[in-house]
Specification:
heterodimer; A: mainly alpha; 17 helices; 4 strands; B: alpha/beta; six-stranded mixed β-sheet; four-stranded antiparallel β-sheet
Chain lengths: 395, 256
């Protein structure tokens, strides 16, 4: 009988445009759309920034440094120069965005260079114009390196004797671990958020909607135990949550495969390795008690609500309570341990992150899973008590 | 047959409800020691003003509510002890009941047939009989949400009768319906009576009561004011018609 109710509710739910939107269309398309738009905008922005000539204001006499500035290779960005007599008019133009960087070069450059003394250059930039300071640095670093080498040569100093430490980095982390730790928080955030949203509309429709439409009375007169009716309906809520997660997962796959979001072939190969059938199976195992927990809580709320609007307003705070811990994986250094494994939602997010990175500690996963199972059973029990209650079911 | 003995139903009041009802009592008694019996092949009217306890009584008969005390038996089955067995005997139709708008009548009737444990072949048979009787074939595969009120009411009738219940409970079934649609309900009640089913019927429309009912129970503030046959009711009438007499009895109780 539970299956009969499940099938009917599923058919009913899949005919609801709102639910289909939240369960299939948005999770599948939102990520590819966001990523393609963001990637396109950032590529255009980078291209434009690289191609657009930078107007550099200079307060300087004709000297060697100015010449070197003009000779900075085009690979560091195209540029043109505007000359000023003093820094005040330069600053005004910088504020007006007529120029993007300003250099104040001392008049005695030749003398300082000859004496091998430091040449102090003031760089004017607009802090709100992001990236300009770095571009100014790249020009000056180019000249700095060139002149430093000249000085070493002049002083007959071997460069290696001046630098007591030569740094050499060897990364022992695998690509999988790096991907898992750096961007691994994004995946659970996405799938948990969509799992919650996927559960929300069916829960409202199958419980509050039943009450609002006046169909609950007739349903309660059929010779089927109430827990069976509840489980049939809850099955659809859980199924919808899992489906929304699945479609968000498909969205991620589409982003990678169709929209070429990941350009680096090594990283792409590592991501494809991570998204193995074993990983997906493990992910669903972790997700299942969490989605049942969501469904149980939502039923407790939606079974009490008299109207669709009331249910939505009651579920909104719960949404915030879910999204915030779901974001925990995005914080660097926040890892699964004995304490975080006790925090619902956070534990699943961090376990998924560790799973992606391949650095899973099984006792912590078991603890997280156990906690979520207990909470899921608690939420189901609460929803059963509410669904059994005469006063909450009938207005 | 329906037998109701000393039936009482009390509800706990929340603080919010206490404020709404303007009372300091923690419980409210909606039905108070009510007894009556409905016989097969007869239509029993349950009358009362708004808030008299009619719907609560009918919800207890249909097993939606559990009685606080007292006994209800449906064809000898105690509804509190064996609710599922009792439910198999009951068809329940209210004027306010909704339908699943995204299903078709065909799908909805199949669903309720399965929930009542009716065999697949029997569902098909009864569904076709009911679709013929109610002239529903034309719209049986259209979504219920797109049907007219009259069509929807036919679907509700079909849903109520798919398991061929021996006891049929009607809670203000014609409330808010147009004359033609209400007529379908009147015919259904008459058919049920002719087939020997036990029918209990609540309504505010005294014309329907006069036309259909064999027995009558009037309740007010949860208590029975009158319980006998329609014939006995007419014989004791002081007022010129049924409506006036009903008002007179309720008013008399209020004055007491």
């Amino acid at each position: 009988m539970i299956f009969t109710i499940f099938l009917k509710e599923l058919k009913d739910t899949l005919r609801d445009k709102r639910t289909v939107r939240m369960m299939i269309i948005i999770p599948t398309l939102v990520l590819p759309l966001i990523l393609s738009v963001v990637t396109k905008i950032s590529h255009n922005f980078e291209k434009e920034a690289a191609e657009k000539p930078l107007k550099i204001g200079v307060v300087s006499n004709q000297n060697e440094l100015l010449q070197e500035l003009k000779n900075v290779p085009k690979t560091l960005g195209a540029k043109s120069f505007v000359y000023y007599k003093d820094s005040s008019s330069l600053k005004t133009d910088l504020k007006n965005d007529s120029i993007q960087i300003g250099f104040y070069v001392p008049t005695n450059v030749a003398e300082l260079k000859e004496k091998m003394q430091p040449i102090s250059i003031t760089v004017f930039h607009n802090g709100a114009d992001l990236g300009m300071q770095e571009r100014a640095d790249s020009y000056l670093d180019y000249i700095h390196d060139k002149w430093q080498k000249e000085r070493y040569k002049k002083l007959k100093i071997n460069e290696s004797t001046i630098n007591p430490i030569a740094k050499k980095y060897t990364n022992v982390a695998s690509n999988q671990e790096m991907i898992g730790k750096i961007i691994g928080g994004f995946l659970p955030y996405l799938i948990i958020s969509f799992a919650f949203m996927g559960c929300m509309f069916p829960a409202i429709d199958l419980f509050t909607g039943e009450r609002e439409r006046g169909t609950i009375e007739t349903l309660l007169t059929v010779p089927v135990a109430r827990w069976k009716i509840l489980f049939g309906k809850m099955g659809v809520v859980v199924f919808s949550g899992l489906m929304a997660s699945t479609f968000s997962f498909i969205g991620i796959y589409l982003s990678i495969e169709v929209f070429d979001f990941v350009e680096n072939p090594e990283i792409l190969a590592a991501i494809k390795d991570i998204l193995s059938p074993a990983f997906i199976a493990m992910l669903y195992l972790l997700l299942l008690p969490l989605v049942v927990f969501f469904a149980g809580l939502m039923i407790v709320i939606t079974v009490r609500a008299k109207t669709f609007k009331e249910a939505q307003s009651l579920l909104s705070p719960l949404n915030i309570l879910v999204v915030l811990p779901a974001m925990s994986g995005l914080f660097p250094g926040f890892e699964l341990n004995e304490m975080t494994a006790m925090i619902p939602i956070v534990n699943i997010v961090l376990a998924t992150k560790e799973l992606m990175a391949g650095t899973l500690e099984w006792h912590l996963v078991a603890l997280s899973f156990g906690i979520m199972i207990v909470l899921a059973i608690g939420a189901v029990f609460l929803s059963y008590k509410k669904f059994e209650s005469e006063s909450t079911l009938i207005a | 047959m329906i037998a109701v003995k000393n039936l009482t139903k009390s509800f706990d009041l929340s603080k919010k409800q206490q404020k709404e009802f303007g009372t300091k009592e923690k419980t409210v008694t909606a039905v108070d020691n009510v007894s009556f019996a409905c016989q097969p092949g007869r239509v029993h009217a349950l009358l009362g003003a708004n808030g008299a306890g009619k719907t609560t009584t009918l919800r207890m008969l249909s097993t939606i509510f559990k009685p606080t005390s007292g006994l209800i038996t449906i064809n000898g089955i105690d509804v509190t002890k064996q609710p599922n067995e009792a439910r198999k005997q009951i068809g329940f139709l209210t004027g306010s009941a909704g339908l699943y708008a995204r299903l078709t009548p065909n799908e909805l009737i199949d669903y309720f047939g399965k929930l009542y444990g009716v065999e697949k072949t029997t569902i098909e048979q009864r569904k076709n009989q009911l679709f013929d009787l109610l002239d529903m074939h034309e719209f049986k595969d259209k979504r219920i949400g797109k049907l007219s009120t009259g069509m929807k009411q036919k679907v509700s009738i079909c849903r109520t009768m798919i398991h061929d219940p021996q006891v049929v409970i009607f809670d203000e079934p014609t409330s808010g319906l147009d004359v033609i649609t209400a007529e379908n309900i009147i015919h259904l009640i008459q058919n049920c009576k002719n087939e020997g089913k036990t029918v209990i019927f609540s309504s505010h429309i005294m014309g329907e009561v006069d036309l259909l009912c064999d027995d009558i129970t009037i309740i007010h503030k949860g208590k029975v004011l009158f319980n006998d046959t329609m014939e006995a009711f007419r014989n004791q009438m002081v007022a010129p018609n049924l409506t006036a007499e009903f008002i007179r009895i309720v008013q008399q109780e209020k004055n007491n």
